[in-house]
Structures are given as C-alpha cells and as structure tokens.
Amino acid sequence: MRLGLSGSPGVGKSTFTEAFGRYLTGNGHKVAVLAIDPSSARSGGSILGDKTRMELLARDPNAFIRPSPAGGTLGGVARRTREAMLLTEAAGFDVVLIETVGVGQSETSVSDMVDMFLLLLSPGGGDELQGIKRGIMELADLVVVNKADGDLVAAARRASMEYKAALHLMRPKSAHWRPDVLLASALKGVGIAEIWEAVEAHHKALGDAGEIASQRAKQAQAWMWTEIREGLLGALKGNRDAVRLLPQLEDDVRAGVITPTLAAQRLLGLVFGVSKG
Ligand code: GDP
After folding, report:
1. What percent of the chain has a predicted confidence (pLDDT) above 90?
2. Ligand 1, CB within 6 Å, residue ranges
3. For residue 206, what pLDDT band results from cuts at 50, 70 and 90?
4. In what order do the strands lie in the sheet with 116-121?
5. Are 33 and 97 in contact (CB under 8 A)?
6. pLDDT average, residue stretch 33-61
7. Phi (first) and psi of residue 275, to 5 degrees
8. For site-directed labelling of 66, which of 30, 37, 136, 269 has its Cα 20 to 30 A away?
9. What contacts 171, CB < 8 A, 6 or more positions away?
10. 196 CB contacts (<8 Å, ≥6 apart)?
11. Where are the alpha helices (DSSP H) in 92-142?
12. Residue whose C-alpha is closest to residue 66's, from 79, 186, 80
C-alpha cells in the first residue's frame, strides 16, 4: 500500500507516523517511511532529518525511515522518492508512507505517487481550514483530526464537523470512495486502529473496482514523461554551447530583439539538431 501523509508543521506528523508505524509493525507489516520535501526549502532541516522524533520506529527492524534528501529541487526529490518507494517495495515493505509538509506543490507530487492520501489537521477548525489550500483538501481520501485528547477533545469534535461539511462540498476523487474525517490522538495512540481500518476499506473498495491498478498505471506513465522532460532539460543544461548561448538569448528575449519561439528554436537546434519547432 502506498500512502501519502500531509499536514502543516506541528500538526503531529512525526508523532502520528511513529504511532501508526508501530501499530502496523506490531500487526506483522513492514513499513517504509519516506519524505518528499526538499530540505533546502525548509528552515530547520528536513522533515525526517531528526530520526529521534521517531525514536521507537527508527529502531524497529520492520521499519525503514529515509529522511528527506538534503538540497535539490522538489522535482529531483520526487524522482528519488519514487525510486526509493519501488526499492523498499522490492525489499518486502508492504506499506510505504510518504510524508510531506502541507504547504503546496509537494502534495500534488505525493498524490501522484500514492494510492491514498491522508491529511492530518489540528483541532483548530475553520481557522486552520483557511490556511490550507482548498486544493489540498480536495486531494484527501481521509482527513484525520489529530490531538483529540485532553482539553482539545471538544474542539477536535467541532473541527471534525466543519471538515466534514467542507468535504461534502467537494467533488469526490473516486466514485467508489467518500472521504471521511476521523479523530485521533497520535500522542496517546487513540484512533490509530480505526485509521488503519479506513485505509484497508479504501484499498478494498478501489482495488475491487480496479482503480488502484489503473491509477498506478497512469502514475507510471506520467512518471515516464517526467523522466523524459527532466532528461531533455538535463541534456540541454549539460550542453556547453547551449549554456554559453542562454544568457544572451534570455537578454534578447527580454529586450524584444528576438521572439521567445525563435530563441527556443535556436537553442533546441543547437542541442538536438532540431531546426523547426
Ligand atoms: P510535525 O511537525 O507535524 O511532525 O509534528 P510533531 O509530530 O513533531 O508534533 C508537534 C508537537 O505536537 C509535539 O510537541 C507533539 O508532542 C505534539 N503532538 C503530536 N501529536 C499529538 C497529539 O495527538 N496530542 C497532543 N496533545 N499533542 C500532540
């Protein structure tokens, strides 16, 4: 199973991953945890850079944690994360959890490589919802309101109602699955089993409908095109003549001396021997 997990910093992703991962290894699963955010884009280092945040899971022989690679672009990290996913699957890990910070583009990247997307929210309710892009909520197959413990239980229940109402207004991603909102306390280990049940139910519903297979096929095809695009760009950036010519072409395009189309054609002609667009 390929799962995506997203949520704003501080919502409890590490704590949840530790609890969820330990629950799964305790039930005979092998869990791989990967991250997709390029650490260079975040202050304070990578999302999983500090394995001590998942101390028990990190020491669990049935778990593998791969911190976010240092530096690099989102595209580059996404490619490596996909490869790491295939490798861990080949190595016998049956659940792959890919984490990301809920801030933007990386969610789309993650949802392009997983079967199911989990969104972790805090009991903040409507206020938090405003801070989260609608697009991210639309990607969610399951919303988990974390920190539903102690004084926060009532707020978590209220938030859950609000999120349910918000989800109802959105077009479902699949005809075979209605996204739901569950309460959890990653800290106290409450609601973890129910979340796993929902994950299994989702897997069964989409699996029976053939949607997991068709979604993975589409994702593989899109991945190929990403590789082609990146490969072409790489060839361009690796061509000395092109690299030398580029600043001049950019200046000329900015100054209106040459049209963007013609500039692009010149560059492509230089690198690939293509004379017309
Ligand atoms: P991340 O930045 O999303 O990975 O969040 P962390 O897992 O590092 O958690 C941020 C803070 O929230 C830490 O102080 C956690 O102890 C706390 N926290 C995480 N989950 C829960 C929870 O279920 N209940 C409560 N009360 N606190 C939590």
Report:
1. 61
2. 7, 9-15, 53, 146-147, 149, 185-187
3. very high
4. 63-66, 31-35, 95-101, 2-7, 116-121, 142-145, 180-183
5. yes
6. 67
7. -95, -30
8. 136
9. 138
10. 20, 23, 24, 27
11. 105-111, 126-131, 134-139
12. 80
Quick one: tokens of 58? 């990190």
Query: Element (H or E) spanning 145, and its range?
Result: strand 142-145
Mutate to test the pocket of ligand 1, among 6, 187, 190, 195 (most ligand atoms within 8 A of CB): 187
Give the contacts of 84 (CB within 8 A, at least 6 positions apart). Answer: 32, 34, 66
Centre of ligand 1 from the C-alpha of residue 175, in Å: 34
Q: In testing the pocket of ligand 1, which one of 15, 118, 144, 146 has its CB within 8 Å of the most ligand atoms?
A: 15
What is the Cα–Cα distance from 107 to 273, expressed in whole angstroms?
Answer: 37
Q: Which of 21-35, 98-112, 149-163, 204-218 has the lowest mean pLDDT?
A: 98-112
